[in-house]
Amino acid sequence: MTPEALHARRNPVRSARIPVIVGLKYRKGNMRNSLKAIFILVLTIGLAAPNLVAQAAAKVTVTLPTETTVDSFLQQTFGYEQGLSWKIASIKPAPVPGLAQVDVVLASPQGQQISRFYVTEDGAHALVGDIIPFGPKPFDPVKNTLVKGITGPARGPKDSPVTIVEFGDLQCPACKAAQPAIEALVAAEPTARFVFQNFPLEMHNWAAKGAAYADCVGQASNDAFWKFVAKTYETQSDITAANADEKLTALADAAGVKGADIAGCATTPVTKAHIDASLALGKAVNVTGTPTLYINGRTIGNISQVPAETLKALVDFAAKQGK
To answer: Which of 4, 160, 203, 233 has the fewest CB atoms in 10 Å of its CB?
Structure first.
């Protein structure tokens, strides 16, 4: 699967519905289908209350599987496919008591995909799916975390009852594809507050640099930031790791700020700290891919495929709830 298909794979509107299990299935030549062999569990509601359940998880000690065990499991499961390789990204306690969380990067000639599964305490079973929030106000934990932590450029009134947060990666083709839908939503909801948070993915070779430039442009001019982001997406396919500095500097100039100053700013420890903080915020609310959109804490995935009227209805509903 290409990177753009990878990031667009998540479900559109995540609301409380019964999950549907998609069984093991592999078809050569199609990364999307080949990686369904990770036991994909399709849900329409995402991992949206990690801070809440993490408090409970912190009180329980869980035995973590070793890298050797995880690697052997992956070898036994996927070793038949010569074009598929993997890298264990992390093994840590899950945000739910009694489970270990394993994150793996799967790769094939078509692209990369982050896969997550959970291992039971007895080490004999693996679970795949999303941990979903529950309660009378299921989205509030994430909403509160975001309200306290967002630092990115914003549009709309600060006292709005609705805060829309996008975690984006300027090198991500799915983020580029989602921009028309996001811009249409912002235009349709002028009383909502919209915030952009940088979330450059490690698999992209100039995304971190793009985030640094964007952060510096945003610090210099909020208006210039939105122009810079739009132009970067527009010319995304022309930017490479080798020419990123040249291209991004020119884009900063075109956005109305001094590109040379932005280039200098992008290399400073202060800017790196800003990007690291934005990444940490995203991870705190369980962002694993881009674009990820939150409407008052409710997660929206595959944004470009969500009908405009649905997005607007979600914002309008959040506004009523937020009053």
So the answer is: 4
Distance of CA 169 to the CA centre of its chain: 9
| Count of Cβ atoms closer than 10 Å to residue 41 Cβ | 14
Cα separation of the two ends of the chain = 42
pLDDT, mean of residues 195-218: 96
Q: What pLDDT score was predicted for residue 59? A: 54
What single letter denotes the amino acid at residue 244?
Answer: A
Strand ranges (E), 163-295:
163-168, 193-198, 292-295
Higher-confidence residue: 24 or 1?
1
Contact status, residue 197 vs residue 278, Cβ threshold 8 Å? yes
Domains of the chain: 17-127 (no CATH), 140-322 (3.40.30.10)
Average pLDDT of the segment spanning 56-62:
59
| Angle subtended at Cα 28 by Cα 22 and Cα 31, rounded to the nearest 5 degrees | 65
- How far is Cα 229 from Cα 213, in angstroms, rounded to an integer? 10
Residue 4: pLDDT band (50, 70, 90) is very low
